[in-house]
Write a structure and sequence with these properties.
single chain, Aminopeptidase, OB fold (Dihydrolipoamide Acetyltransferase, E2P), 2 domains, binds zinc ion
Amino acid sequence: MNSAKHPATAAERPIELVAPDISPYRDGNAGVDYVHSFDSGKPGPHVMVQALTHGNEICGAIALEWLLSEKVVPIAGRLTLAFGNVEAFARWDPSDPDRSRYCDEDFNRVWGDDALRGTRDSIELRRARALAPIVDSVDYLLDIHSMHEACRPIMVCGVTGKGGEKSAELSRRIGVPGDLLVDTGHPAGLRMIERGAFGDPAQQRTAILIECGQHWERSAADVAIDTALRFLAHTGAVDAQWARARMPLAPSPRQQLIHVTEAVVARTMQFRFERVFAGLEVIESAGEPIARDGDTVFRAPYDNTVLVMPSLAHLKPGTTMVRLGRIVAPD
Ligand SMILES: [Zn+2]
């Protein structure tokens, strides 16, 4: 839905989705532009769906625009729909689709109090500071993303020992997608799904992040809408029947949980993968080469090593090229 063929900017990554016009949603009712919050007047959790944490990940914007056009309102608790990095999205250009990921810095690395309450300034920090009071009142958060490579959808469930387990449990109850990931976070800064109580296993508040597939493939929009509907139905924000009647996809027949154990970091610009990987490939035997960087060979550390979001797109010495994971709970 909402899709049509645009000229491909890269043969392997055609732009199949059309970015929606979100300007009608600028004036929200939550005191922050592009944030819409609806109170049912009945007891229940505060549930939030965010799109456009990264400005070029347009499937989430399509899903939120669709939910708003369907006039979704909560039947219990409070529902907030937020377009995240709207300034980056305003720079979206299908002829240069990677450029609008962010303006000054990655909006998904600024959610620690050290950054939010510090003195540093950026377009992303300003937006995060405006959104933080809302985020801090949310019980269940779904953050909608997509990926650089054509990988099947992944639910990123936060960090091992820091809320990752409760997020994985929520994803199991939602029933999509097939691959759930608990990782080790990013050294560059906290993601929204790790902020405050979301990252505390002792508290109930829970956040999950869906990677819907390749940024601009048609199916990413279906995954975004489907996941949002299942999330809203499961949390009780919307009527389950209303949601079921609109779900574009079937639930996943099985789900597996992958724990990220380590990252492979490029040392030089010569870093290359052994072959083309899209992500979630399983390297059967420990010791099999995964990538090379000059004389260095990176090998699978254990049998059935899973490659998590491999990409050469941001190759730079010191940058993570792929994370390696272990399947801990196959169905
Ligand atoms: Zn993203």
